[in-house]
Amino acid sequence: MEPTLGDLPPEEFRRLAREVADWMATYLEEIDGQRVYPDALEPGDVRRALAGPPPEEPEEMDEILADFRREVVPGLTHWNHPAFFGFFAISASGPGILGEMLAAALNVNALVWRGSPAATELEELTLDWLRSMLGLPEVFDGTINDTASTSTLYALAAARERAYPEVGRQGLFGQPPGRVYASEQAHSSVEKAVMALGLGRNGYRAVATDDDFRMDPEALRQAMEEDVAAGIRPMAVVPTLGTTSTTALDPVDRVVEVACAYDAWVHVDAAYGGPAALLPELRSHFQGWERADSIVVNPHKWLFTPVDCSVLYCQEPETLVRAFSLVPAYLRTPEGDRVKNLMDYGVALGRRFRSLKLWFILRAFGRTGLAARIRHHIHLARHLAEWIDVEPGWERMAPVPLGLVVFRYAPEGTDEAERDELNRALIEAANASGELFVGPTELGGHVVIRLSVGNIKTTEEHLSRAWRVLREEAAKLFEG
Asked: Structure pTM?
C-alpha cells in the first residue's frame, strides 16, 4: 500500500491542536499537583518504556499523544513547577507559550532580512524595547541567541577580533598569548568559550573575590599587570551581575576602569541578574554596565520566556560582524547594507523566530508588570533568608541581593566533613520527596544548598512548604 503524502489533514490538525491546547492549559493550571522530580526513576527507565524498532508504518497521533502523557511526562523534572527552585528557577508564561506556538507554526528562518523581513525587524524592535526597559543607552545593538553560553562565546570572539585583528585570516598561530579574566565565581561557560576560541585553558585567569563573593578590582589590576609584564595580552574581562553560586553582583564600574587601562574588552554576564535592572531601587548595582562592550541578558531565566532566548547586546556590532560574517553567493541579496542580516552575528545560519515570544511577553506584562514579579521574587527570597537566620542548626552562606538563597544544614556537634555529607544527602532526600527541587554548589570547598526563586507562579506558600520539607528531611537524616 502506498503511503499517504502530504501533512495532517486540516480538520485533524484542528482537532489535535485543540486537544493539545486543552492539555497544556490543564497542565499549567494543575501543575502544583505534580511531583517536581520524578518518582523512583532510574537512568534508562524512560528509554526502556519506549523501546522498540523505529516505526515502519504511520502511527496514529492519538496513540503518540497517549505515549507522551503516559511515559514522557512522568519522567520529566518540571521546570515550570512553582516549587522548582534548582539551577536558576525559570518559567514559561502564558504569553510566551502562545508566541512559541505561533513561531513553530510559522517556521520562518530569519537568516537574512529577505528570509523573513518581519522576523528580523521584530527582533530589532523587541530588543530596542528591552534595552530601554533596562536603562541601557541606544548605542547597544542586540541579537538573540539560544543560551548565554553562546552569547558569551560570540562576545569573546568579538573581543578576540579587536585584540587580534589579523586572526580572521591568519588564525592564532604565532600570535602572542592572550588572556580572559573573570572572577572565581564566574560561570563555567566563560572558560569554555576561551577554550573554544583557541586560547587554551591557560588563556583564562580566575580573579579573587571579596567576602561577598564579588570580583576584587584590585586583584584584577594586579593580575593584568603581571600578565602584561610576562608578555600576555589582556583580551577581555567578564564581570558578572548575578553569579551562579550566590548571585553576587560584581562592581562593574570599577572593573571597567581597570579593563580600560589595558584596552581589554568588557563583557558583562548579566544572564541571570540583568532583568533586575527593571527595578529602579536596584539600578545602583548596574553602574558601569553601560560602558561595557557587550552584555548578555537571558529572558528565559527571569523574564518568563520559554527556553531558549538569550540576548547579546554589543556596542561595536561591526566588530562582532567582522568576527563571523561570511556571505556566499547563494545568500547575497539586493538589500545590501540597508538591512540587518542576523546570520552575520554568530556561527548559526538558521535563526528561529525567538523574538515573537519575547515581544508577546513585553507587551502582555509591560515594564511595570515584569518589575513587580521580579520584586516579588526577591521579597520571597529574602523572607526565606530571614527564616534561615533564626533557625538553630542552619546557616545562610551568602548575601541575598536577588532571588537566590544559599544555605546549609549545620547542626551543632558536627564537623565540616559531616556537614558536607549531610547536605548532599539532604538535597537528594528533599528532591526525592517530589515536593520541591533544589541543587548544590560549593563555597569555600564545602557543599551548600542553592534555592532559586524565579517561577511566575511561586508564592510564599510554596516557599514555606519547601522550608518545612527541608527541615523535616534534615531532622530525619541527623537523627537517623
From this structure: 0.95
CA distance 86 to 403: 12
Cell of 58: 504511520
- Domain extent, residue 432, equals 362-479
The CATH number covering residue 427 comes to 3.90.1150.170
Alpha-carbon span 275 to 296, nearest angstrom: 11
Q: Using an 8 Å Cβ cutoff, are 168 and 198 in contact?
A: no
Are 267 and 387 in a shared domain? no
Verify that 201 and 273 share a domain, yes or no. Answer: yes
One-character DSSP codes across 198-255: T--GGGEEEE-B-TTS-B-HHHHHHHHHHHHHTTPEEEEEE-BBS-TTT--B--HHHH
Give domain status of residue 464, yes or no.
yes
DSSP letters for 296-345: EE-HHHHS-PPS--EEEEES-HHHHHHHH----GGG--TTGGGS--GGGG
Residues 213 and 346 in one domain: yes
Cis geometry, peptide bond prior to residue 308 (ω within 30 degrees of 0): yes
- Per-residue pLDDT tens digits for 114-153: 999 999 999 999 999 999 999 999 999 999 999 999 999 9
The sign of the torsion formed by the CA atoms of 75, 81, 85, 87 equals positive
* Lookup: cell for 160: 578576540
Helix count (H) and strand count (E) of the chain? 15, 11
Is residue 408 in some structural domain? yes
Query: In terms of domains, do 274 and 376 share one?
Result: no
Residue 456, SS3?
coil
Closest residue by Cα to residue 467 from 418, 424, 443, 433 = 433
Task: Please report whether residue 37 resides in a domain.
Answer: no
Measured between alpha carbons, how far is 227 from 463 in angstroms, rounded to an integer? Answer: 47
* Length of the chain in terms of residues written: 480
Q: Are residues 341 and 412 part of one domain?
A: no
Asked if 309 and 447 sit in the same domain, the reply is no
Taking the CA atoms of residue 377, residue 189, residue 209 and residue 163 in that order, the dihedral angle to the nearest 10 degrees is: -130
Q: What does the angle CA 315 – CA 356 – CA 192 come to, to the nearest 5 degrees?
A: 50
Q: Do 312 and 171 fall into the same domain?
A: yes
* Helix ranges restricted to H, 346-459: 355-389, 416-432
CA distance 273 to 247: 7
Residues 341 and 400 in one domain: no
CB-hemisphere CA count at 13 Å for 100?
15
Cell of 370: 515584569
Q: What is the β-pairing status of strands 233-238 and 204-207? A: unpaired
DSSP states of 171-185 as a string?
-STTSPPEEEEEETT
Q: pLDDT of 341-356, one tens digit each?
A: 988 999 999 999 999 9
What is the per-residue pLDDT for 1?
Answer: 56
